[in-house]
What we know:
The complex is a heterotrimer of chains A (512), B (277) and C (482).
Chain A: H1 3-20, H2 45-73, H3 81-114, H4 144-153, H5 162-175, H6 182-194, H7 215-218, H8 250-265, H9 267-272, H10 285-297, E1 313-315, H11 332-341, E2 344-346, H12 351-373, H13 387-409, H14 440-466, H15 474-505
Parallel strand pairs in A: 1-2
Helix pairs in contact in A: 2-3, 2-6, 3-8, 3-10, 4-5, 4-10, 6-8, 12-13, 12-14, 14-15
Chain B: E1 5-6, H1 10-14, E2 53-55, E3 62-65, E4 78-81, E5 84-85, E6 87-89, E7 91-92, E8 101-102, E9 110-112, H2 115-118, H3 120-126, E10 133-138, E11 156-161, E12 167-170, E13 173-178, E14 215-222, E15 225-230, H4 255-265, E16 269-270, E17 273-274
Antiparallel strand pairs in B: 2-3, 4-5, 4-10, 6-9, 7-8, 10-11, 12-13, 14-15, 16-17
Chain C: E1 5-9, E2 12-16, E3 27-30, E4 41-44, E5 47-51, E6 56-61, E7 69-70, E8 73-74, E9 80-88, E10 91-94, H1 97-102, E11 110-118, H2 120-125, E12 132-136, H3 141-149, E13 173-178, E14 189-197, E15 207-212, E16 217-221, E17 237-241, H4 256-261, E18 271-274, E19 277-280, E20 284-285, E21 288-296, E22 306-313, H5 327-336, H6 347-362, H7 366-370, H8 383-391, H9 406-421, H10 443-446, H11 465-476
Parallel strand pairs in C: 2-22, 16-17
Antiparallel strand pairs in C: 1-9, 3-4, 5-6, 7-8, 9-10, 9-15, 11-12, 11-21, 13-14, 14-15, 16-20, 18-19, 21-22
Helix pairs in contact in C: 6-9, 6-11
Amino acid sequence: MRFRVNRHLRHHFRAERDREIRDAPTAPRSLSPRRQPYPPEEFTWRDYCVFLLRIAAEIEHALMVQYLFAAYSIDGSKLPSRERHRVAAWRDIILGVAREEMGHLITVQNLLILLGSPVSLDREDYPWDSEFYPFTFHLRALSLESLATYICAESPPRWIGQVASAIRKRANAVNKGPANRVGELYALIGKVMNDPDRIRDADLQATTAPFQASWDEWGRGYRQFAQSTANGSRPNFVQAQMIIRRCSSRDEAVSALAEIGEQGEGLQAAASGTGEPGGSPEVAHFRRFLEIYRGLRGTSKPDLVALKIADNPRTEHFLDIARPVGRRKIHSAIGNFQAYSGANVITHPVSSPLAHLFNLRYRMLLVNLTHTLRTPGSDDPNQSTTVRGALINRTFGEMYNLRSIAGLLVRLPLEPGSRSKLMAGPPFEMPYGLQLPDFERDRWLLHRDLHLASLIAINRCRTALEGSKGIEIVVPALTYLRALENADRIALDEVGGGLTRSEAQSSVGAPA
Amino acid sequence: MSEPIKARNLSAQLHYRAAGNPPTTLASSAISNCFPGLEFDLRNLWRRLFQGILLHEADNLVVAAEDPGFRKLVGHRLIFVEECPMFIELRGPTKPGGADVLLTGSGNGVAALEWSNAMASVLERFKGTKDKVRCRFTKNPAWNPIGPMESSSAQLMTVRMHLNNLFYTGPDGEQAVINDTVVLPGELTQSLCSPWQNDYRECACYYWAASRPDFVNVEQTGPGKGTGNNWLAKDVEHKEYVVDSAVNQSKLWTYDELFRDWQRRLSFIVGGRDAEE
Amino acid sequence: MTIRGIRILPPLAIGRLGAAATPMDNYEVVKDQRKPLGYRHLRPAETFDVDISSGRILSTFTPSWVQFKDGPKVRPIAPFLEVWAVVSRDRMEPLTLDVLERSGLTPADLRWRVHVANHKVFRRTGDWHDKVEAFAPEPEPDLRLEVLRGKPKSIPRNKGSDPTFPTFSDHKVHQLLGRSPNFWAGRSIRLGSVQYIDPTKEFPQIRLRFTPAGGYVYGSSWEKPPPGRPDDPNLHEIVYRGRRGGWLGYTEPSSVEGVAKLTAPSTIYAGESIDGNATSKGYLDDECDGIVYAVLNSPSGPFPPAYARIGAGPPAYAPDSFPVRTVADELEQALLGTSVGIDQVSAESAEEIIRRAFETIRLMNTELMNGNPAVGGLAANNMVVQDNRDTGRASEPIMDPSLVNNSSLAHLHEAILASLLSGTAPWFTGVLRRYDQIGDLSDRGRRKMPAFMRGADGRYMTLTRRQIDLIEKVASRNLNGS
């Protein structure tokens, strides 16, 4: 984590934690002036709340990405057929958890918007070393070790016992230090937000509702506990329930925070012992990971559940891309950094351009999401469909693209030759910046640039594929690239329309 | 000349495209969410599912007995077949944002399931056997729709029925052609609109858009914004979708105009646009 | 190689109405390899040039372009039905001149009979005199009457030949004239025609061609109609005798039993409102469905007749697009069950379903179908209104109104399709509506897929269970690279 964030945390978190951690997270407290804690240096409470929410956003974003990576690594095709079904179900469960993290991420954005803060989708690539972070950020294929870290990250406060110890031990082995709990952060934010002495009513801007994301926009058809059908499809299939709350008041904000914490840890469930409100006991992320952990241990060959993907795959960057492959100079600063951080550089001539394409689409997802949250939706029923709706659909489209390209990358080699048997993987490298231009026209110019960059990237991928040998997935990869190219061209047409329209609207270019 | 086909490969036979036949001669070009349908009302396939009685194609009701021995079932409702209910409860909010409740707005809060999916597993199980199927009918006639029922309800009685073969079954086994004694000529189309052009206006039938288009000549004017024509619009120069409503009667082809000259007035849509003829 | 029996393929063939003199040419619909998400292409294909007078195929040709109309008239789609010979326990081959010869038979030994009907009026009135039946060739009046009366016993079973029903084996065009006891004397509705194609050395396949009718509307009158065109410009001809039958002026019954027996939807006949009742104008159309029988003589007696079903419907007006759920899907499920065999699980079949969903919504005004208030969606012909009217469910859009712009939804489907094309396993089986979830009219329930469309039960459409099983099986198989 960047020093600029860390420096505030070191000071305050310990103190807060020591003092507050034993309290029930949702009980409102009125604190006498003598007991009232102080905000850290350079902060007011409101601003501090924003600061904590930004960290929460970063954590949710990071968790989501790590879970996606883990899910994409799951294969199971080499397992006996009777086990494959179950393994496929794990993939869906972890994807469901990732989806729910996205719901958390979005709800946190809503809370930021409520407080009048800009949205925050930024996160550090690598490395991490803060006490706040649940575990060391690490993109890795699914394994008992990685699952152990996820379980610990989402575990309820008083989770003890033999199983707990064993799992913690396994988690600590890879985590280089005890794993923290994400719930603590939410508990703290909840406390702060619930206190009218710290966050005043006026700090919560209900009028920001049209900017906030709503479940109606993002929830799609997801529901909790979808029944399995008479067709005998997967039993015990737990479907994602996305928590996306628009918040206009303190109560709504506090309740949303509690819900998010609950979905991770299942605190209420643990306390009451009867399972989740709503029926099924298997809902909390913690429990779902635990279930998979048990299942994985019980598999005939746990090593064959996931593909052999390189940890922390990274794209290569050259100073001189025009030169033939063997003659390019590696960017030394990046090269050093990657060596330091234990990253695995994707150097295979087909995987490399695809990994860059992946990063580009990841950026496009983040840009579309940011643009969405900066574009007000309409409460006016007489307004016809909006740009915001199109942006939401574009965001979803990018999610599907990421899934597709990740699916290709995990089946392509990391390196040329037979040096390692490792496969590449989705790098999820952050773009150089996430700032959205102020003016609408410039935002569409950015979209246009990204689509154009994608067309170039697609061409590079295609050239590499067409010149390749021994790649099994050449045909579906080329088909997909053609389809994506198709889609980019159509999108460019429409973005062109958007540019013309926003030009017409803003003669002087007033911010949208 | 075509390659030989396995006599037991019913799927290949069903999808077989005879020489010279365009793709729209195939069953895979005809819609089957039939309410009532375009080419066929395939719900009529199921009317003689059970030997001796005639079911309503769109309701779990016995409308006639073809075997006098089953006359007592006429007007009764078929509620369960084996363990499968033939109805479903309707639940949803009565106010936006409200809780989901049993919707008894009109009718009794239930809908009859379409035969095709509801009976699929029973058909699979019993096909080719001589076994009788355990059916739970209402004890009394129930011409009016009735509400949800448990299978153990005292208002139901069990009658065991034989299934008819929906497909012609000869000495060599089942074939892919619908049995001629189970569906007679005229029955696959009898419950369609009369005349069929009646289905092209006001029938909420825009849900067969791939067969009977709705929104054509679409132009995107920007992200999230676009416009196009109503396929039935008289004036397609003006790029604005004309909603099929009372005020727009003059802007869309009327029933009479369709009866008179649908062939000239309706355009084939290729690539989402009016095809040049 | 001996003939053990015969079959007609395909077992169901669809004709499409049109009044142009020349039937529609053959064409292919192919996916665009360069633009996988684009519209399918229509390509002209090898077409038979049939000489009507002799019944022979003179030649084949491939037209320069695909043309659906001749001037103001639609070209009808006139399908061919082929006869196949069952030559061994499990093998069928085309029945050709050669195959016949080798069994000592000639084309004249293959005899046909066709029976089609239009029961649309009968379905409403319940009066068997309203059935419109057409035969080729025309049977004895007594037999026709038996068929009208609907006595199943008298309909010949498929054992042995049907000595009662006449057959033909000439190559003339046989008109299918739909007659009804309630028609004026001498009047009939032409429901199409059939012709036994005369096989030649160059085109030796045994086949029959069904040409549907011209898509005309027929009417009724109280008094005997004079010759010539009817006054009502909607009509091609008056056929129905108003006072004899109940169709002209028919209104739907209001008795409990009568109401229960109505079609769903009801009141879907041409009518006008008189005293608040939808009163039938006595119109009929020339659609039909029925059966083509083929009987092959053999030295040891005729083989059991083979048959196939035909029907005539309206044109498919978006010929490069296909529906999400089709008659083929229904019949496959009824034939083969709800579970797809391993050998039939292919990514292509799952893609095809999604592609069809995409093709459907592309042509749909999704904002209106969603019930968007801004376009009058809360008072339009869509499921939002139906839900409210039929069940009392709250009237509100199905999905968030901002999301349902037609192109924006199309792009979303494109991304899904692209993903499937990349070999990604379908991930969305959870949002597919199951057949027993049609009662779920909650927000979440209504947002499941397929969206916006009405199903056969009058509520939201579902795929067949077999279709869902296919997608689920593709989803749980890992297909990348395999």
